[in-house]
Amino acid sequence: IDLGPFLSDLIENMRPIAAEKGLRLRTGPLRGRVESDAGLLRSVIQNFLSNAVRYTARGGVLVGVRRRGDHLRIDVIDTGVGIAETQIDDIFTEFMRIGEVEVEGLGLGLALVRRIVRLIGGRVDVRSRPGRGSRFSLYLPALDMGGAQRETGPATRSRVGGMRPLRVLTVDNDARIVEASRMLLEAMGHRIVSARDIAGALAIDGPIDAALLDYQLDDGENGLDLAERLRRQRPGLPIILVTAENSAAMRARATAMGIDCLAKPVAPAAIEAFLAAVSVREVETE
């Protein structure tokens, strides 16, 4: 992968969102080549970029690439709220609060990023100062112009190349959201099956690789009740809850069930990261 055009494309896609917030989105040197899975690498950098823009109120975001020995370091640097050193490990948990900013979904995305990065043989580093901003960095082995690269990570091309499209169940009582989900997931290369209630979801035949469930369904039904029944029917099914609900009771129940929550409206990068992590798990168990 030539990082110049690859990163430039991601940056341009994020630029309108940054502009809406009055943020500058700048680039430093982007030179360098790596051997990696483009989809997984895109998920990681999109996560860094979307978090940087989301949690920066003033200033901007800088993206650049630096050579560090045999590795390239891809940096996403922001002038956002910043994180205390003692809290950096905590940002890899599902939910936390940094200063006055509700960082819902940040840890979920980073937990998935951590898994993806392990597969592609990289390493994540975070440097931050409260009130000054953060630098999220991805280290990957550099690919020289002759194509040589050292095997420094657990992943090989054959394992990463084993990724396959997933069959994803989407359940929401709003037909418009179901259709939007279909368009998004198909654009990512996945296949979708959908339902609007518990009975419809349980009646679906064939394999399901992952499920995206709304919490508030019709007639008193909810996504966690459905999740319990799906896992009895399909043990080990990866499930994520997509919801506008934010009650402590709902979150506690989801946590006890080992189900992460994404708050509506959901960034496509977060869904892509979840599905990439499902693919990672499947590849690692082969």
Automatic annotation (TrEMBL):
EC annotation from Swiss-Prot or TrEMBL: 2.7.13.3
Molecular function (Gene Ontology), one example: histidine phosphotransfer kinase activity
InterPro entries, A to Z: CheY-like_superfamily, HATPase_C_sf, HATPase_dom, His_kinase_dom, Sig_transdc_His_kin-like_C, Sig_transdc_resp-reg_receiver
Domain Response regulatory, first and last residues per copy: 167-279
Keywords, sorted A to Z: Kinase, Phosphoprotein, Transferase
Residue ranges of every copy of the Histidine kinase domain listed in the record: 1-144
Domain of life: Bacteria
SUPFAM superfamilies xref list: ATPase domain of HSP90 chaperone/DNA topoisomerase II/histidine kinase (SSF55874), CheY-like (SSF52172)
Top EC class for this record: transferase
Cellular component GO terms held in the UniProt record: plasma membrane
Reaction catalysis annotation: ATP + protein L-histidine = ADP + protein N-phospho-L-histidine
4-aspartylphosphate modification, residue list: 214
UniProt-listed PANTHER family: HISTIDINE KINASE (PTHR43047:SF9), TWO-COMPONENT HISTIDINE PROTEIN KINASE (PTHR43047)
Protein name: histidine kinase
Lineage start: Bacteria, Pseudomonadati, Pseudomonadota, Alphaproteobacteria, Sphingomonadales
